[in-house]
Amino acid sequence: MATRPEVASDAARGSAIITIGLGLSALTLGGVSANHLDVAPRHAGVVFAAGNTAATFAGFLSVPLTGILLDRTDSWALVFGLAAAHHALGALAWVAWSGGEVLEEDITLA
Q: Looking at the 3D structure of the chain, how many domains does it have?
């Protein structure tokens, strides 16, 4: 087995790092969930459902792909590195494309 740098030298430290990461990730839920109402008040449910479906599909694929990656590389560092890169790219995309303006398609004509 190849040597690789370890972030956590023991299980307790690894568990603490994962717990802190998940806790920080949970802080995004308020903004993400509320943004659907900001941009599409009349169709927030549909917009939320589309995003939730995409996230569920990604979760469905990630489990077997993680197994394949581990079988081929035996590297948890690579698995967590890819997850970190995915979160970073998602955050950048969110900052670039999110907003609070109501979508033109969702404006109710009086």
A: 1
